[in-house]
Amino acid sequence: MLGVSNEFGNISYSDEVVAKIVGLSTMECYGVVGMVSKNATDGFWELIRVENLSKGVKINFKEDKLNVELFVMVEYGTKISVIANNIIQKVRYNVENYTGIKVSSITVNVQAVRV
Description:
Elements: E1 2-6, E2 9-13, H1 15-27, E3 32-38, E4 45-47, E5 57-62, E6 65-75, H2 80-99, E7 103-114
Parallel strand pairs: 6-7
Antiparallel strand pairs: 1-2, 3-4, 3-6, 5-6
Organism: Clostridium fungisolvens
């Protein structure tokens, strides 16, 4: 569980909640087609439906450090470095703004390009 403590008490967030915030924030970025998840049976990357966006996100919280890793598909013809930077800024801002948890690192894995 991720958490924030202050003089009033503690607030705990499940990994699923933070992953959902990350997924929805990512989908708001221009050039992102969707979040992807690897299908273990045949090795293909598949788009994730909106209700399961957290499957394209890995959350690691150790020693008050939140590390986020996400897997996306981008639109062909867009500048991938710009899209990735936009995702990083948007995700960092939304997670920190909504939860109060500081994000240590965000890794964007571009797994596919939609032609």
